[in-house]
């Protein structure tokens, strides 16, 4: 009998470590395969702002499984059927956008879990093949991330944090900036101050805070108490390309 795949992000968080997820760019099965050996705990599958099909999501989750990393899929709405479908095609982590209230947090958590913890649709998908006691094990190993993206979520944060079944409360800077009147300025000082205060409140409640980070900011967010980090590979690609071209132009004219 096969064993249920262990959710690497959840394991790292349970052990008190910092979980790293690579995304922020157009991930594909090939990119996941290439970056799989790098050591990230999870790979981000973007379906809210991307053009991924369900078939592509399924192939990307298989690539994640090959490397033993968590397939962290952001759905585009807090809908039970949508969350169920993403899990059914192989995702081992769900990111739910625009969680602004206790009720919406409960909806996200329950949509990702089978009874008695929730009401995920009673289907299994390939992650269940050969796994004994799949429904219980799936509840244990499925990662649930709530995106806190608006000032409404900030106002309701204490109630949102009272919801069990959410593994990570992730502060999303861009949409938060927009609702604060700073559209296109996720690094605005007022936005960063709100994020810092929310991370402090999340960690004080004994919950895991998540943050969008770069090479320049990750150490600061670790010091602030966040333990789930999403970063993009695009700046590394751009930086490497610019550095290479600068050398060619400096020597070759």
How does this structure look, described?
The protein is of the alpha/beta class and 253 residues long. The protein has one domain: Alpha-Beta Barrel (TIM Barrel), CATH 3.20.20. 45% of the residues lie in helices and 15% in strands. It has 12 helices and 8 strands. It has helices at residues 8-14, 29-35, 54-67, 80-88, 102-111, 134-141, 151-155, 157-161, 173-179, 189-204, 218-224, 234-252, and strands at 19-23, 42-46, 70-74, 93-96, 143-148, 168-171, 209-212, 228-232. Strands 1-2-3-4-5-6-7-8 form an 8-stranded parallel beta barrel, surrounded by 6 helices. Strand 1, helix 2 and strand 2 (42-46) form a beta-alpha-beta unit. The termini are far apart.
Q: Brief overview, please?
A:
The protein is an alpha/beta fold and 253 residues long.
Kindly list the characteristics that best describe this protein.
253 residues, alpha/beta
What is the H-and-E element order?
Answer: HEHEHEHEHHEHHEHHEHEH
What fold name stands as the CATH topology? Answer: TIM Barrel
CATH superfamily: Phosphoenolpyruvate-binding domains
Mean pLDDT: 96
Please give the CATH class.
Alpha Beta
Major sheet characteristics: 8 strands, parallel, barrel
The gross shape turns out to be globular
Spatial strand sequence of the major β-sheet: 1-2-3-4-5-6-7-8
CATH architecture name: Alpha-Beta Barrel
* Distance linking N and C termini: 64 Å
Structural class: alpha/beta
The amount of helix comes to 40-55%
Low-confidence runs (pLDDT<50, min 5 residues)?
Answer: none
* Tally of discrete structural domains: 1
How big a fraction of the residues is strand?
Answer: 15-25%
**Strand runs, count:** 8
| Cα radius of gyration in angstroms | 19 Å
Number of helices: 12
